[in-house]
Amino acid sequence: MKKFVAGLIVGIVASLALSGFAREIFLQGMRIYVKAPQENIRTAPQGEVLATASKGAEMIVLKDNDKWVQVSLVGYIWKESVTASRKELMGKPYKAMMIVVRTEQEANDLLQKIRGGLDFAAAAKENSIDPASARRGGDLGEFYKGELAPEFEQAILALSPNQISGIIKTKVGYHIFKRTQ
Description:
Elements: H1 2-19, E1 31-33, E2 38-42, E3 49-54, E4 58-64, E5 69-73, E6 94-101, H2 104-115, H3 120-127, H4 131-135, E7 139-143, H5 150-157, E8 164-169, E9 174-179
Antiparallel strand pairs: 1-4, 2-3, 4-5, 6-7, 6-9, 8-9
């Protein structure tokens, strides 16, 4: 009976290992190697693909998560092909100003006055319900593509410098933008 139970336990352990329940554990700092012919390197689990690593590519484990391993690649790249500034990769920055009001009627009245010559910065200071941008005369500062909410970015980038947007409705209120750069 003992031999039967021991054989049964060995069989269960072997089947668990083969079925994927038993998996390798990768410790931080451990060197690991790609075993598939090619594997994607991603920004996050299920995230955007950054690169592809070939079989045998060496990496250092930063963190072992359930089905994903955060890694650092080991290898060489031509120095002139890299930068320490992520902003350099993001294209040219743009600047904008914003006014947010509570009602559509307020937004329509204000937009008509601004298009009639009212100074945008003065209108923002006096009327915007967003205290941070209102203090700066509506100035939002400098942004790179992908840093603002998509509906804001789309509205701003559709404008030429010094052009005023239409009204954009959000959960917060009614927005008017002026692109400054």
